[in-house]
Each structure stands twice: as C-alpha cells, then as structure tokens.
Amino acid sequence: MARDDSSRRWFLFDYGNVISTAPTPSDWEALTEATGVPDLAAPTSGYWQHRHAFDAGAFTSGEYWSLVCARPTGPVRSAWLDVLDGNQWSHLNLETLDVLEDLDARGERLALLSNMPAPMVSQFASAPWAHLFRHRFFSSSLRLVKPSTAVFDHVLTELAVEPGLVTFIDDSPANIAAARALGIDARLFGPTSDLSRLLAPAAPGTGLQDAAQAPGPAVSRGPE
C-alpha cells in the first residue's frame, strides 16, 4: 500500500549562518584585496547595499561587482570575485551537518531555502551537503527574496504541504516572523543554538531533547 506523504513533515533550512558559518576576517581581507574596496564587511558597504538585488537575480555578476567596486568590472575579474565570495561562505557548521545527516539517515524530508546569488548557487551545486536536500530553493532562480511572503507561498506549493507541517530554521528574525505569519513552524537559529534541541518538538520520538534554550543574537548577514 502506498504511503501517504501528505501528513509528513518537511524540514526547511536556511544556508548562511545555519549550514555555513560567517566569513572570517581573512576571507574579507582576500575580497578587499581583490576589489580594492576597504571595509566590505560593513553594513554600509557596496557589498551589502546591492546584495538584495543580486540575490534576487536583478543584477548579473558583472553589474553587481561593478557597483561594489564603483568602477567597471570585466567578466574575468567578476568571475574571480564570485569564487572568492563563494569561498568565504563555504565554511560549514559541522554540528549542523551532523544533524542534517542524521535526519537524512532517518528518511526525513529536507529542503533548502536560501537568498543566494546565481554564481554561488552554481559553485555549491556539486557540494556533498547540497545532495542531502530533496528540494533546493534559491532566490536568484525564483526572483523572490526572503522575507517576502511570496517566496514562502512558492515553497509550500512546491512541497505540497500545509504550513504547520514545515519546520523552518533560519538565523534572520525577519524571515522567521514572515514564516510564522503563514503558520509555518519557524525556529530562530543563533550562534549558540543546539540544533538537535531546537528541532526536538518537531520530531517526537526521535530521541532529540526538548528545546528550552533561546538562540543567541544573529551574526553577520549572508546567504539567508
């Protein structure tokens, strides 16, 4: 008899600062050296000021890096900057990976939802962690960016699931609030969070402990 998946839970994960850790100072230094632009990590830098549009697929790589550098940036240099940018967001949170692999081994349904520019999506496409997810949703492909309600509506439609059967993990309070407004079981992840405990109420009978601790403050923004 075929199994009815309509009542099964999905675990929906953010990427940046959940699966990955934040860039290190040396990462930012490498990007600063390549661009010639100081203080790229600062919230007021061109890197962040134009990031939303880049994540949304509104800019090509060349257009984005030209804005960041405040001068025309050719395709070869833009491609190299994309590599450096991807590298600095490729440091993985090993504790998160352990939990993801455990969920996958138990046959749980995993999906990814990230605000991520197209070059980074391509760079990570063959990463082993990416294949843990049955569905991967990226802002640059959807032309929809969290915390837009539309991006969550799209995910729910594609997963063919009711909001209450989705447990969403993200480090952004705005993203968590938007998801909760739709009835999604959203959990805020912070640098001191124990992911197993955070997921425990959504996975009864799995041996995970109940989550009583509050996550720490969100770290620097990135692929969300």
From TrEMBL:
Q: Where is this region: Disordered?
A: 205-224
Pfam families found in the cross-reference section: Hydrolase
InterPro entries, per the entry: HAD-like_sf, HAD-SF_hydro_IA, HAD_sf, PGP-like_dom2
Gene3D superfamilies given in the database record: HAD superfamily/HAD-like, Putative phosphatase, domain 2
Q: What is this protein called?
A: HAD family phosphatase
Originating organism: Arthrobacter burdickii
